[in-house]
């Protein structure tokens, strides 16, 4: 087995980290692990162990994975994922969800894949980021208890309160898409999480990003949209536009974006660019 370290988010999966550690100790002798109380503590732990560890395992949700990936991107170190979040979008797309026994087998097999990442004004993203309804939902969701049903309740509430985000592209090639939208998503993989496939044709190793522009639909269209969202059947229509690109620059009249599910202040112009084959991931 490669030299492995585990970064565990103690707040993920209903604070079930103690149970995970017990399972880990039954399958790996004297495992090296860190209970992460903050992004800063994660960074310190990784840097202190960088020279003696080959694989860093993020144990948590997409936010935990992203915080570890930010330190490993553009290095020869390997990111492994043990999903314990509420949505697990990145884990569902890049690596299958498995139990501890299967995970140890994966560590021993050492199969690694290079994937793309991308930046929004220097903020690294590995999965799906954006501005508009999704960032407004996360802003409100942070005030509630975690969980899929609370997320749905917050989304419904914000949908009827949120107006729109005004998008203006800096490049002439995209200016025909200027306008007001319910949200703009940049997708490196296909889904937000919980099998909600916002970009069915997005793949993390194709060298391209999928830009998804969504206009506010009439109420009758919402069930159609949701059905297609959860069945991988979203497609271009009068309300949805999909654009494949490797970089773009745009202005948005909202300051708060969501970057892999984490709220982030980003001022315009927002420069979005892909970082090809920049992260090694255990698969």
Write the layout of secondary structure elements.
Blueprint: E1 4-8, H1 17-27, E2 32-35, H2 39-49, E3 55-60, H3 62-72, E4 78-83, H4 89-94, H5 100-109, E5 112-120, E6 123-125, E7 128-132, H6 133-141, H7 148-161, E8 165-169, E9 179-181, E10 183-187, E11 209-214, H8 222-229, E12 240-245, E13 247-252, E14 256-259, E15 262-265, E16 270-282
Parallel strand pairs: 1-2, 1-3, 3-4, 4-16
Antiparallel strand pairs: 5-6, 5-16, 7-10, 7-14, 8-9, 8-13, 10-11, 11-12, 13-16, 14-15
In short:
With 283 residues, this protein is α+β, with helices and mostly antiparallel strands. The protein has two domains: 107 residues, Rossmann fold; 154 residues, Tumour Suppressor Smad4 (Sandwich). It is 28% helix and 32% strand.
Descriptive report:
There is one protein chain. The chain is of the alpha+beta class. It has two domains: 4-110, Probable inorganic polyphosphate/atp-NAD kinase, domain 1 (Rossmann fold, 3-Layer(aba) Sandwich); 123-276, Tumour Suppressor Smad4 (Sandwich). It is built from eight helices and 16 strands. The chain has helices spanning 17-27, 39-49, 62-72, 89-94, 100-109, 133-141, 148-161, 222-229, and strands at residues 4-8, 32-35, 55-60, 78-83, 112-120, 123-125, 128-132, 165-169, 179-181, 183-187, 209-214, 240-245, 247-252, 256-259, 262-265, 270-282. The strands form two sheets. Strands 1, 2, 3, 4, 5, 6, 8, 9, 13 and 16 form a ten-stranded mixed beta sheet that branches. A hairpin with a 2-residue loop joins strand 14 and strand 15. Helix 2 (39-49) crosses helix 3 (62-72) and helix 6 (133-141) packs across helix 7 (148-161). The chain is globular and about 55 Å long. It starts with a strand and ends with a strand. The model has no long low-confidence stretch (mean pLDDT 91).
